[in-house]
Amino acid sequence: MFRNLFPKISPSRPPCERDSYQGTPSGVPKVPNHETAFRRWKSAVAASPRPASLRNVLTTTIALLALAAISAQAQNSAAATADLPAGPMQAKATAACLECHEARIILQQRLSKGAWTKEVDKMVKWGAQVDPADRDALIDYLSTNFSPDKPSYNPQRTAGSGKTAK
Amino acid sequence: MNSRRNFLKQLSGAALIAGAAPSLLTWAQSVQVPGEDRLILRSFRFVDLETPVEDFNTWLTPVPHFFVRNHMFEPSQLDASDWRLALGGELEKPLTLSLAELSRFEPHSVVNTLECAGNGRSLHRPQVPGVQWGKGAVGTARFSGPRLRDVLQRAGVKPSGKHVMFRGLDEVPGKVPPFIRSIPIEKALDADTLIATHMNGSPLTKHHGFPARALVPGWIGAASCKWLTEIKILEAEFVGNFMSPGYRLPNQPVKPGDAVKPEDTHPVTALSVKSVISGPADGSSLSLKTTRAGKVLVQGAAWAGEADITKVEISTDNGATWNLVKLGHDHAHYAWRLWSYDWKAKPGDYTILSRATDTQGRTQPSTPAWNPSGYLYNAIDQVKIHVS
After folding, report:
1. Staple partner for B379: which of A54, B43, B138, B368, CB 3.0–4.6 Å?
2. Which residues in chain A have their CB less than 8 angstroms from residue B131's CB?
3. What pTM was estimated for this model as a whole?
4. Set of chain B residues whose Cβ sits within 8 Å of the Cβ of A71
5. Model confidence over B199-245: pLDDT tens digits?
6. Residues B237-261 pLDDT 10s
7. Domain B274-387 - what CATH class?
8. Do residues B214 and B182 touch, judged by C-beta distance below 8 A?
């Protein structure tokens, strides 16, 4: 999608004065990365062209369509499913905090009540809609659920891109 | 040749794959971020992605593996033909440049290790607020584009110009202050400070600041403003949240919990000396039967901002003795050195430590300098492993 936005700049790489890139050092075994794997796969595909029968095309199309639908569903669900924990302040915290950023930013914090108080006050200054009557309850909710003694947060990974951008 | 039966078999196979895929995808719990490959998801909105340390095995980090740090929404509209860079402030002849005009300046390349000031923040104790980066908000790439100096010289900096402000096109939510910062004129006029349009030989991707970003080598990533659209020459440091209280360190060491007055702080600029172990993985179990000649390969990367790495040492006995590692061949002034060490190991449980020293005489400390925002974490790195 962003490829269309790329400027037409000369593809030749400008001369480099300082670096001395010679590949991976000899003592360090090179772990094949996805680029190498993708290049191999591409050359393997190119080396073995197969005549495409209508049935093959149809089967592949059905499988691809199904996978595309699933992948779209997975994108939506996996990206959007991070929720704040249940509790009397869940709805108000969701409205106030997730207007600008998502829940994961909160889920990964492990802070004292004092630190949460500073964060909430800073965010209110930056536009978070918190009724003054709810401020203390919001701080309690965050400092109870995300205190330093809670187990550490386990982040997700992004999917393999399958692309070979350098 | 396909029979009808084979065709039906293929169809049911496709259906089977389609049926099994959702559970596999749910199990994998991965999130699609176009152009990014198997990075640790710190945040999706705004995009903050971390490189797993095991990917620090190439001198240049491939762009899909390069960490991403955004404070705001990425620009919703980016059109190379409409994009302009405005230069103003303390200049003799204020300028506006299109991308084509910018590309006519003599290009220059710098291989630079770019590290987020908050890299390693999650390792500070007590914990501090902010994106809870592990060890991987760092990467090395060849950045190319005109020197900022050449562009500024065309516009003519007045003697009153002492600081250079960068503004990007990122979009601000709520009443959040815009992400605007400045660097001193001396660093701006350095021959290696760029207006980068390319990364590893390709145009910048959107996550990395297309179509142009500042590249302030050896300094924290926040200095290298993405989606650059305005450069303003100022008489003094820019006044704004991301210069103060943001991105400042206490002048004197502070105890956790100490309040620090703004006048007792200075901006975070150049990176610290640091090494990271990329393998073996923390918590892994290795069998000497499967290793070469009973040796365990310990490897990683080391960098020092504006200084160069002079040595990296490894300890496998909790710091009682230290052994020099072999530094990789590839090097450049602002770039990390890959390193490796063949360790003749005996069975047991170990904590492997790595410690880097640089040309400024700085060595990684055993305890990090705690500070309220968790910047520049650089304690001696460690991984725990079991050898059988």
Report:
1. B368
2. 105, 108
3. 0.81
4. 25, 32
5. 999 999 999 999 999 999 999 999 999 999 999 999 999 999 999 99
6. 999 999 999 999 999 999 887 888 9
7. mainly beta
8. no
CA–CA distances in Å: residue B378 to residues A114, B48, B115, B250: 26, 21, 12, 16
Residue B204 has φ and ψ, to the nearest 5°, of: -55, 140
Residue position matching structure tokens 């703004």: B262
CATH architecture observed for domain B48-267: Alpha-Beta Complex (3.90)
Chain centre distance of CA A16 = 33
Global ipTM: 0.89
State the best of B5, B8, B16, B29 to mutate against chain A, taking most chain A CBs within 10 Å. Answer: B29
Where are the alpha helices (H) located in B141-184, listed in sequence order?
148-155
Which domains, and CATH codes, for chain A?
Answer: 90-145 (1.10.760.10)
Q: Which of B22, B107, B203 shows the shortest C-beta gap to A6? A: B203
Q: Is B236 left (phi over 0), alpha (psi -120 to 50) or beta?
A: beta
Given a contact cutoff of 8 angstroms between Cβ atoms, the answer to whether B338 and A27 are in contact is no
Instruction: Say if residues B217 and B193 touch (Cβ distance below 8 Å).
Output: yes
Rounded CA separation A152/A109 (Å): 9
Amino acid identity of residue A57, one-letter, is V
DSSP state string for chain A: -GGGG------SPPPBSS----SS-TTSPPPP-HHHHHHHHHHHHHHS-----HHHHHHHHHHHHHHHHHHHHHHHHHHH---PPPSTTHHHHHHHHTTTS-HHHHHT----HHHHHHHHHHHHHTT----GGGHHHHHHHHHHHT-TTSPPP--EEBPP------
Relative to beta strand B48-50, strand B68-69 is antiparallel
User: E strands along B188-336, which residues?
Assistant: 194-196, 198-199, 202-203, 213-215, 228-234, 248-250, 265-267, 274-279, 285-286, 295-303, 309-315, 323-324, 326-327
